[in-house]
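ingest -> validate -> predict -> emit
validate: passed (alphabet ok, no gaps, 200 aa)
predict: started
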Amino acid sequence: MKRGEQSGDTGVRGLTPWAVRFALFWFLAGLAQGCFLPAPIDEEDPTVDEPPRILSTIPKQGTQQVTYSTIGPSFYVTLEEVNVEQELYWRLVVSYDDELNAAVVIVLEGDTERIVPVIKDPTRRVLTAIYSPCDTPQYDLEGRSGTLYIGVSDRPFLRPLSFKYKTSEIGDAFLIDEDRPVASFSWPIKIVGNNSCLDF
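emit:
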C-alpha cells in the first residue's frame, strides 16, 4: 500500500473518535436541558364544560292559544348538552300584559324527569313543558295575553319560586350563581275559553 493511502486511512480513523465524542457531548448537553425529553402529558380532563343550548322547539314560533283545562298544551324543546352526565334545571315563566296595574308573573319549575335524553345521540335531550292557567287558580286569566318563557341551565336557579317578580324583571327568574348563559326561548300566548278549572 502506498504512503499517501496509508496516511489518508490513518487520518479518517483518527478523526472518528473525536466526531463521536463531539456528538455525544451535544446530545448530553441537550438532554440536560430537556431538549430531547418527551412533552409532558396533560392529565387534566380535556372536556370543556359548555352550557346547554337550544336546537329546536315545537311549536316553533307565533302566538299560542292556551285554553282553561286541567291539562295544558305541551311545549317541546330539543337541547344540546355535550356534558352528558350533567344534570339540567329548567323553569317556565309566564308574564301577562300589564292591565290596570295588575301584572301577573308566574314561575313554575318542572321535574327533571321531563328532560329525556335522545337514545341515538346522548348529547341531545328533549324537554316537555306543560302549562295550564289552572295551575294558578288565584288569578283570573280569561282573555289575557302575555309571553311564556322557558329557560334551561346546568346550574341551579338562585331565586325561589315564591319570589315576587315584576314584568320588567323576567330575567331575574333565570339568574344563576355565575356569569354563564341560560338557554331560553319564548312564545306569545293568549288565554282563550272560560275559566272552567273548578268544573273538574
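Residues 89 and 156 are 6 Å apart (CA to CA).
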